[in-house]
Amino acid sequence: MTARRLPAGLFAALVVAACAAPFAVLALLSVADGWTFSAPWLTAWRLGRWREALAGDLASSTALSVALSLAVALASTAGGLATGRAVARCRHRRAWLWMAYLPFASSPVVLSVGLVVWWIRAGWAGTLGGVALAQLVFGYAYGVVFFASFWTPRLLAYGDLVRTLGGSAVQALRLGAWPVARSAAALCLAQTFLLSWFQYGLTLVVGQGRVSTLPVRVFAYVGEADAGLAAVASLVLVGPPLAMLWLNRRLLRVGMGDGG
Amino acid sequence: MKWLPVVRAVRVPWALVPFVALVGAPVALALATAAVLSVRDVAGRPSLAAWRAVLTEGEALGSLALSAFVATAVVALALGLALPLALALRDRVRRGIVGAALHAPLAVPAVVAAFVAFQLLTPSGIVGRWLVAAGVVGGMEGVPVVVNDRWAVGIVLAHVALAVPFLVLLLAELADSERLADLARLARTLGAGQRAVRWRVEVPVLLRAAVPQAALLWVAVLGSYEIPLLLGRQSPQMLSVLTLRTFERFDLADKPKAFVLAVLYALAVGAVLAVVLRRREAS
Lengths: 260, 283
Known about the structure:
The structure holds 2 protein chains of 2 kinds. Chain A is mainly alpha-helical. Chain A has helices spanning about 1-5, 10-30, 50-55, 55-90, 95-100, 110-120, 130-150, 155-165, 170-200, 200-205, 215-225, 225-245. In chain B, helix 13 runs antiparallel to helix 14 (about 255-280). Chain B has 14 helices and no strands.
C-alpha cells in the first residue's frame, strides 16, 4: 500500500502532523489578533484574550462542567459497579445488557426531544440537576455495559468466599472484589467523566440554554463569530482529556470495548 | 413486619432498580412520548396530519437520505483510510510518538471538531489562505466550497478526521485479537504471496471483525448534531438538526412533526442494528 512505499520516518511524521493539526489550529486562533483574509500566517498576536476569557464567563462554565461531569461520573461508576454485578449474576443478562445499550442506539438530541417533555412537567428542565439526570441516562448505561463484562464468575466467587468465611457483604466487596475493581473503576470514572464533559446536544435541549457548560459556551462563542474566544474555550475543553491521555492512553478509549 | 419475609422471598435484585428508574424508564418514556405525540395534533386530539406532512413535504425524506448518505460515506472513507494505516503502522500504534499522536484526536469532541473544520475549510479559512498564497487560486471565490455545501463534503471530512484515528487503534487491537499475524504466516506457508495475504486474509478478517463498530459509527454519524449544525446547509439538514429545529419552531403545530422525525430516526437505527446483529448471529 502507499504507506509502505514512503520512508518510515516520513510516514510517521505525516501521521503525527495530521493528528496534531487541530491543536495547532486552536493554539494559533487563540492568540491571533486581527488575522485578516489572504494573510497565510499570523500578522499579529496577543495573549490577553486568554486572561480576558479565564476572568469572564469561561471560568464559571469550566467550574460548572467540572462539577457536573464529576457528579455524573461518580454516580455512573458507583451505579455501574453495583448494577453490573447484579446483571452479571442475573439469569436474563442479555436482556439487561440490551437495556444498557438502548441509549447508545439513539441520538442524544433525538432522545432529548422526547425526554424534555417530562423534564418540563417535573420542573427539572433548565436546571443543573435536570441536566445531570439526563446525562446519567448515558453515563449509567455506559457504566453497566463496562462492568457487566468485568464481573467474571471467578471475581464473583471471591466475594462468595469472603461471605462463606463469615465476612459481611461490605467486607466481601472491600476485600474480595475492590482490590481487583479499583483500576477498572478509575478507568470507568475517567470515561464517564468524558461522556458528560463532551455532551452538547442533550445539555442544550434539557438545560434549555440556561445550563452553560463548556461545550455550550464554545458554541455560543462560535455563534458570536468570536473565533479567538471559541479557540480558547476549545483548548480548555480538550485540556482534561489530553491530561488523561498523558496519564494513561486507555482512559480515552470510550466505546472501544476496554471494559474490565 | 409481616411483609418482610414476603419481600425477602421475592428476591428482587435491588441493584437493578435504580438502573430501571434512571436508564430504562427515561429511554422508554422518551421513545413512547415521541411515538404518542407524533399521532396527536397540538390540541392533543388523535391525528395523522404530522405523519402525512412529514412524508409528503419531502424535507424529512431529504434529511433522512442526506443523513444516510453522510453516515455511509463516513464509514466507507474512514475504513478505507484506517485499514491501510492500521496495517502499515501495526506495532507502532501502541508505543512512541505515533501511538501518542493517534490517541490525541480522541480528546477532541464533535463541537471542537466542527469549529476547527469550519476555520480550516471555509473559503476564507486557513486552507483557502494557503491556496491563495501558493497561487493555486486567484482569490476567495476560487477556493472550493466544502462548508455549507450541497454534497455535505465538510460534514463528511470532519467526521472522517474524527473517526480515522479511532478506527486505526481499533483495527490494530482487532488484528491482535483475531491473531492476524498467525493467519498471515499460515497463508504464506501455504504458498500465498504478499498481495494474496493482504487482500484475501488480512483485509477480509479485519473488516469482518470491525462490522459491529462500523455499524455503531454509522448510527453515531446518522444522529450527529454539532458537526452538521455548523458545517451543513439550511436545507436539507441532517436528521438531528432538523428534528431539533422543528421542535424549537415558534409554531406549536410543528412540534408533532419533530416527534415524527424522532420516530423515523429510531426506526431507521433499529432496522440497521437488527440487520447487523442478525447477520452476526447467523455467521
